[in-house]
Amino acid sequence: METIHTVEARALVELQKRDTALDALRARAADIPRKVKAAEAAFAGKKAEMLGAREAYLALQSRKKDLELRIAEAEEGIRKHQLQLNQVKDNSAFKALLAEIETDKAAKDELETGVLTLLDEIDRASGQDKALQAEVKKVEEAKNAEVAALQAAAVAVAAELAAAEGVRAAAAAAITPELVERYEAVRANRAGLAVVAVHEEPATGKLSCGGCHMAVTPQKAVDVKKPDTLTYCPDCRRLLYREKTLFGQG
Ligand SMILES: [Zn+2]
Q1: Which of 89, 96, 107, 247 has the smallest CB count inside 10 Å?
Q2: Residues 48 and 102 in one domain
Q3: How many angstroms does the Cα of residue 99 sit away from the middle of ligand 1?
Q4: Residue 212 in contact with residue 233, Cβ under 8 Å?
């Protein structure tokens, strides 16, 4: 079947327009959960970054505590050895104790330098921790607002979709079932687009398929200019019509 003459041609074109609008609406509906997921993921990423910074900050503080503990131990060692200095009579034992005290003091100095370095790092980490916490709070607020808006949009789109599907079903029911069946078969194979207007080159009047853009043969160009006529595109098998002819504008 290459050409269809039917008074239902216009109704089929209208059905395609409804279906195209419905497909766009369904795509919008399907897009909403994806957008919600993306917003949640962006927030989760920021939150993970914040937790990482917090962990780093706490690790630095625990390292500082550890150093302070070792400083206290070194001080205890120094004090003990200084007490022992008063009790030894032996010169070599005295010297050994002095050496021990020097070693403890050197260790204590090194540990204190370590604490100073850590204090700088803790300062930076604390600043980063606070900045990230503030940022996460902001991101969370923005995310919550976005998700709420998306959920409201989902409700609205669902209502719009239900109404449009009802109108579409009634429109399809008014067309001969075999014609709808053929239309559906092409639609299934052509990404939802079964009926397309031919494109008319203004300068030359040459026609091409509005779906695959291939030139329309001279015979088909004649056919498509007849009233109430649809013709198949030989290349993509979509149903072609001419806007001016079918909708009576010349
Ligand atoms: Zn085509």
Answers
A1: 89
A2: yes
A3: 97
A4: yes
